[in-house]
Please model this.
Amino acid sequence: MELGDDDGCFACGKGNSFGLQLEFETEDDEYVTWFAPEKRHQGYVGIVHGGIVSTVLDEVMARYVHVLGYDAVTGEITVRFKRPARVGSRIRFAGRIDDENSRMILTSAKAVDEDGLIVAQATAKMIKVTGNEAKDNGEPGAGR
Model:
């Protein structure tokens, strides 16, 4: 699989007019973005769709892994929703690396609202890809 960036990522791509166009910064040992969901991001009235919250949680974990120089993809993600994320609020998403072994990187993230309350938490297993795996673009015979 090709792990290149063409600026089309739904979460962070500046070239994706339908995407979230998130911006990130490193704060101590966390990778952080702020997101202010709009009505177009809602599921139920006034509540941000859980898939959007999950996407941003995944992005702060996966991007941090890449910023630190790893080629890795999300192999498993678990999201626990604690309370509704509200449309029109400002939410801080922060991801961190918890552990690493030869095959994977264990990460965690949380989303915290303006009142300091946890909206959602996530953990993920980022699977390291190297050499031919990172170059496999899905074409027959690629990555071998």
Observations:
- The longest strand covers residues 118-128.
- The chain has one domain: 25-135.
- Helices lie at 50-67, 132-135.
